[in-house]
Amino acid sequence: MATIHPIPAGDVPALQTEQLSVYYGSNPALRGIDLTVPRNRVVALIGPSGCGKSTLLRCFNRMNELIPEARVEGTVRFNGEDLYGERVDPVNVRRRIGMVFQRPNPFPRSIFDNVAFGPRINGNTTGLAQTVERALRQAALWDEVRDRLNESAYDLSVGQQQRLCIARTLAVRPEIVLMDEPASALDPIATQRIEELIYELKEDYSILIVTHSLQQAARVSDYTAFLYHGELVEYGPTDLIFTNPVEERTEAYVTGRFG
Predict the structure, then answer these.
(1) Rounded CA gap, 251 and 11, in Å?
(2) Pick from 91, 114, 245, 259: CA 20 to 30 A from residue 127's CA?
(3) Whole-angstrom Cα distance, residue 39 to residue 53?
(4) Taking phi first (over 0 means left), then psi (-120 to 50 degrees means alpha), and beta for anything else, what does residue 62 get?
(5) The total number of structural domains that make up the chain
(6) What is the model's pTM?
(7) Per-residue pLDDT of the chain (259 residues; tens, 9 = 90+)
(8) Residue 259 lies in a domain
């Protein structure tokens, strides 16, 4: 049984899982996960490699369905709605719950066209320039690229490319932002920019971040979930998880005795 610490009454759930399990073929990747993600909070998913962090993240926007042998059991609710219900369109889910990947993956297009891509395919072309500017401002990139919008996205630094990918995600106005180790390929200065950005974005979004860096989890998150061998071991406020965990395995991990 996982140790789930109480979430304050003022933190309204945005995402909830109930006995969520994921299998790749006959191999279980996640087993019986019960997790609540509050609105406008940052939740960090930590644990050793292969523990199921990224698999759990992909459950929230149904990306595991793109893997032929993957099977999802249990319930995932978004604002009370079952994300895996028969009438739920997974494409719409992925618009409302955006994702930023480990390595920057800009399209071979201009900076402007990268950010405008999502709104265009959704048919939202009115006020496109304003949409692009808003997303770039939210991603703290506008001042650096405002005079370079027609240049290739590949001309940007790696850190700028990652913020561009965040802007591309924000351009379609999602409600949740998923981040799978968004700073792992970045230098310390670019990493600091991403962390500052995460802190700012939670005013408007709920954010889940997978990270191998315990220091990063401690810096940016409000809540932390520790996973081990596909199971949720402990979940609660980040300061509690890092300073006074209940589970011995949690304490051993956050103090560096294994990992």
Answers:
(1) 26
(2) 91
(3) 20
(4) left
(5) 1
(6) 0.94
(7) 799 998 888 899 999 999 999 999 999 999 999 999 999 999 999 999 999 999 999 999 999 988 989 999 999 999 889 999 989 999 899 999 999 999 999 999 999 999 999 999 988 878 999 999 999 999 999 999 999 999 999 999 999 999 999 999 999 999 999 999 999 888 999 999 999 999 999 999 999 999 999 999 999 999 999 999 999 999 999 999 999 999 999 999 999 887 6
(8) no
